[in-house]
Amino acid sequence: MNAVLTAIGDELLSGVRLEKNANFMAWHLHNKGIEVKAIEVISDYEDEIINLLSRWIGKTDLLILSGGLGPTHDDKTRYAIAKYLGCELYSDSMYDKILSRVKDNPDRLARLEKSRSTQAMIPVKAQPVYNPTGSALGIKFTKDNTQVIALPGVPMEYEAMTRQELPEIFAQDNKHVWASIIILGLPEMTIAERIPEVINNHALHVSILPAFPQVELIIRGKPDDVDEAEKLTRSRFDDVLPKGCKSLAEAVLYEAKINHAKISCSESCTGGLVGAALTEIAGSSEVFNGSAVTYSNNAKHKILGVDGNIIANFGAVSKECAVSMAEGALRIYDSDYAVSITGIAGPDGGTESKPVGTVYFGLASREKACAFMKVLPGNRSEIRTRAVRFALAELWRTLHNKNLEPKL
Predict the structure, then answer these.
(1) Domain for residue 65, yes or no?
(2) What counts of helices (H) and strands (E) characterise the chain?
(3) Domain range for residue 204?
(4) Which H helix or E strand runs over 345?
(5) Residue 324 predicted with pLDDT over 70
(6) Do 46 and 64 lie in a common domain?
(7) Is the pTM of this model over 0.90?
(8) 66 phi and psi, to 5 degrees?
(9) 158 and 199 together in one domain
């Protein structure tokens, strides 16, 4: 079986919005061993949608469209499908089921009643798809052995409706599984060269996803093949995150829990992103005591106790300040380990000696503290994201190896 995924919307082509639905669906289709032949993003024009239907119907088993089913002038999907099928539109009674969900909210009910003239309309030669979380009906039909499903573009609605209409895609049957292996500190080519048996195994599908300082391997295939490949891969590397940990934050929390260690952090240029990454994970309160966002020099001094002479003599972006920030977080949160970040994320503020992207990281335990520096590439957002990764990576290594020796 194969599939084609399409997102409809000028806002996607212009970059105003990110397309997320195809990413979500492609992952689950691939896990079921279903080949995704293409992922396309097209404009709102009727002719573009009709052209898409003409190109793929009869040539793929499953065609899923997202977007263009709302009540506004630029929502053209239902009209394009009706024109392609050569039929009229009718108002389907399934819309009453949607209205019944909001019967106790008069204002919401009035708005949805007004939208009936568009969002309840279904081509005569198609069937409606109930929307359990939103207000627009989806559309489905089969033609020339191609199952076509058109759904709203709102990710929450898209996910709920695909799970409803294609339950077999999301059911766990153990025929195909996947494993995630995250390796630190090595380039992707080096990793690939160390595991030729895995890379060249035609029974597996291996994706190598670099996001330095980590590289994630996604291995898909039959359970026994994946299990053997994962064991072999883990045996070839030292800095590999624990099995089951799909992110650096998960690995930090896992290591802290098994070591009965409390952790904390202090952040300047990342503005709380490290703390956010850790607290996004359920159960983080068992080991994470807190994060201090000390953006100004005054905050570093008053909250963390960074000596004013350190900032005056070395600057806020310095090894000395990073160490003092980590020690301050350790003290005020009464933790066993702490990490700190202070840097220049840009686009302004860089100098010849400290260009944009210069970031210092501090690590502290109850016995000692140290710091290291990285010059990170990218724009402001990319520098901050990479800084979070480096901080979490070294905090994990510290917890895992029980010593403060930055490596990455």
Answers:
(1) yes
(2) 17, 16
(3) 177-235
(4) none
(5) yes
(6) yes
(7) no
(8) -130, 135
(9) no
Per-residue pLDDT for 32 more than 90?
A: no
Please provide the distance, in angstroms rounded to a whole number, between the alpha carbons at the two ends of the chain: 43
pLDDT attached to residue 328: 98
Domain boundary among 235, 259, 283: 235
Query: Which residues does residue 300 pair with via DSSP β-bridges, in sequence order?
Result: none
Same domain (yes/no): 117, 17: yes
**Residue among 366, 379, 303 nearest 387 (CA):** 379
CB 174 within 8 A of CB 208: no
Q: Which two tokens stand for residue 408?
A: 């990455």
Nearest by Cα to 168 from 79, 61, 291: 61
Residue 139: both structure tokens together: 């559309």
Residue 94, both tokens: 């399934």
Per-residue pLDDT tens for 262-305? 999 999 999 999 999 999 999 999 999 999 999 999 999 999 99
Q: How many CA atoms, within 13 angstroms, populate the side-chain half-sphere of residue 286?
A: 14
CATH no. for residue 283? 3.90.950.20
- CA dist 362 and 79 (Å) reads 59
* Tokens of residue 99, six digits: 């209205």
Residue 242: inside a domain: no
Question: CB-based contacts of 383: which residues, under 8 Å, 6+ apart?
Answer: 269, 343, 345, 346, 356, 357, 359, 376, 377
Biggest distance spanned by C-alpha atoms of the chain: 78
Q: What are phi and psi of 127, to 5 degrees?
A: -125, 155
CATH number at residue 43: 3.40.980.10
The number of C-alpha atoms within 13 Å of 215 and in the hemisphere containing its C-beta is 19
Q: Do 231 and 268 fall within a single domain?
A: no
Q: Can you spell out the DSSP letters for 106-166?
A: HHHHHHHHHHHHHHTEEETTSEEE--SSSS--EEEEEETTEEEEEE-S-HHHHHHHHHHH-
